[in-house]
């Protein structure tokens, strides 16, 4: 497992249930809000500083998510994509990486197609059981509660 972690050049993330706890708050006026963990954000910045490419793909389009990704300096984020695998494969090819160089973090069935093909599939602890079964690593922390920081620390400590 250590060699797989050390070789990661690109890591992809789902948003709802991974960056967040999966809850979506909608006001009476229809305005959406989400909660992101600050330690996760710091971990993302550290990974970027270590030269790891960050790719975020979400099935939902969200202004809150867009703002957070921009704040973190993530250039490759795709919101409102129900089919995540084609975008993931396109970015892997664009960077001339192999799938074995890649990790992905997911929590639900919309992430399964990518988790099945990457070198290091990761599930957050609050993921569906069917997703956990296909992953090499399952976080101790849940999505939105430090799971991303746990993963970023794991990768950085092996670089």
Key terms for this structure?
single chain; alpha/beta; Rossmann fold; two-stranded antiparallel sheet; six-stranded parallel sheet; 159 residues
The CATH homology group name: HAD superfamily/HAD-like
Tell me the name of the CATH class. Answer: Alpha Beta
Structural class: alpha/beta
Strand order of the main beta sheet, please? 5-4-1-6-7-8
- Radius of gyration over alpha carbons? 14 Å
Helix content: 25-40%
Q: What can be said about the biggest beta sheet?
A: 6 strands, parallel
The structural domain count equals 1
CATH fold field value: Rossmann fold
By DSSP (H or I, 4+ residues per run), the number of helices equals 7
Strand content: 15-25%
Report the end-to-end length measured between terminal Cα atoms: 13 Å
Q: What is the typical, i.e. mean, pLDDT? A: 96
User: Quick one: how many beta strands?
Assistant: 8
Task: Return residue spans where pLDDT drops below 50 for at least 5 consecutive residues.
Answer: none
Architecture per CATH nomenclature, i.e. the level-2 architecture: 3-Layer(aba) Sandwich
